[in-house]
Specification:
This protein has four helices and five strands; from the N terminus they run E-H-E-E-H-H-E-H-E. It is an alpha+beta fold. The chain has two domains: 46 residues; 67 residues, no CATH class. It starts with a strand and ends in a 21-residue tail after the last strand.
Length: 141
């Protein structure tokens, strides 16, 4: 059975057509008869979960396009008093999961379908004379 996040009932065709264009689906119609005469057709519409997921993915891709993912990661690390430069996706020292690495793993799995593991760098980039060999912004694209 299809999963709908929202269900609406409308009688106005312009509104129904606009919702259909936005990805809503027509579930059923019903006819309402009035006691004083006349009738109206009600359109029962549902917003499918997959439509909302696609919309959210589009929003996330736009955020990433304008580098807001980097800002989010930086601000999250700062709020949790974590140094993001201590982490790497290249095999290194074992790392206990932190608030930031837990979020990053969830993000990559949910948004990109990737399983990403994080490790503690053996040498902090600011202390490494060969800084260029490290990916210091954790950008996977």
């Amino acid at each position: 059975m299809k999963q709908y996040l929202k269900i609406l009932v409308h009688t106005e065709m312009n509104r129904v057509n606009r919702l259909l264009e936005e990805g809503w689906e027509l579930i059923e119609t019903s006819k309402v008869l009035f006691s004083v005469g006349g009738e109206v057709v009600e359109y029962h519409l549902g917003l499918p979960a997959e439509t909302r997921i696609k919309q959210l993915e589009e929003i996330i891709r736009t955020y990433e396009k304008y580098h807001l993912k980097t800002t989010l990661i930086h601000d999250l690390a700062e709020a949790n008093k974590e140094d993001i430069l201590e982490y790497t996706t290249e095999p290194g020292l074992p790392l206990s999961e932190t608030t930031v690495t837990k979020f990053l793993k969830m993000y990559e799995e949910a948004v990109n379908g990737k399983t990403v593991n994080y490790y503690k760098r053996e040498v902090h980039p600011f202390e490494d004379p060969d800084l260029n060999r490290y990916d210091t912004d954790l950008d996977y694209e």
